[in-house]
Amino acid sequence: MKHDGMKQGDRIRLLKFLTFFYLGGTERQVMNLATGLDPERFDLHMACNGKVGELLEEATALGVPVTEYAIDSLYNIGSMRARLRFSRYLREHSIEIVHSYGFYSNLFAIPAARLAGVPVVVASIRDCGETLTSTQKRVQKLFCRMADCILANAEGVRRWLIREGYPARKIQ
Predict the structure, then answer these.
(1) Residue 164 CB partners (closer than 8 Å, separation 6+)
(2) How far apart (Å, rounded) are the C-alpha atoms in residues 140 and 10?
(3) What is the pTM of this model?
(4) Alpha-carbon dihedral sign for residues 145, 171, 31, 136
(5) Rg (CA), the chain
(6) Nearest to residue 109, comparing CAs of 23, 46, 56, 171?
(7) Burial letters for 128-164: b for 16+ Cβ neighbours within 10 Å, e otherwise?
(8) Burial call 55-86: b when 16+ CB within 10 Å, e when fewer
(9) Once rounded to an integer, what is the mean pLDDT over residues 129-146?
(10) Around Cβ 171, how many Cβ atoms within 10 Å?
(11) In a designed cystine with 113, which of 14, 118, 123, 139 is the match (CB 3.0 to 4.6 A)?
């Protein structure tokens, strides 16, 4: 029984995109959020670049689609084909919100979500880019300009993003 007169089609179609399901802080938080979503309000989908990691079993146990878009580089033709396939998936399932987590997921999912016409695209940045090259930092900033919102997991990350030239109005 649906509460508040909500019908199946009224659920918000949300897709969360992770690189992998290895045990880490980001992945654990994504799984906590996914587990806590009200299935009567959200039609959750999950996607990744690799169906591997300790948390994959937990993700599949949710009974939601978990789709893999395996790539060996973000910048080659195989990656472009995978993005096009992901974009088709988003359109076919009328996904309304795409939320990606981290450098690789952001660079993969954001342009595909825009190509698919997803109404809301959210990027999560959860570090100060310590492991990224200067080129990777520039590319991430460029791709994140396509996102509607950039979620930072800490005030220090938010301040770093602003110093790096990310639009402050987009950062939460």
Answers:
(1) 129, 137, 141
(2) 33
(3) 0.92
(4) positive
(5) 16
(6) 46
(7) bbeeeeeeeeebbbebbeebbbbbbeeeebbebbeee
(8) bbebbeeeebebeebebeebeeeebeebbeeb
(9) 96
(10) 18
(11) 118
> Rounded to the nearest 10 degrees, how much is the dihedral formed by the CA atoms of 46, 47, 53, 55?
-10
Which residues are CB-neighbours of 38 under 8 A, at least 6 positions away? none
Numbers of helices and strands, H then E, in the chain: 6, 6
Instruction: Yes or no: say if 108 and 79 are a contact pair by the CB < 8 Å rule.
Output: yes
Task: Report residue 117 as tokens.
Answer: 């016409």
34-69 pLDDT tens trace: 999 999 999 999 999 999 999 999 999 999 999 999
Phi, psi of 95 (to 5 degrees): -65, 135
At 7 the pLDDT is 53
Q: Do residues 46 and 78 lie in contact, with contact meaning Cβ atoms separated by under 8 Å? A: no
Position 3 confidence tier, pLDDT thresholds 50, 70, 90: very low
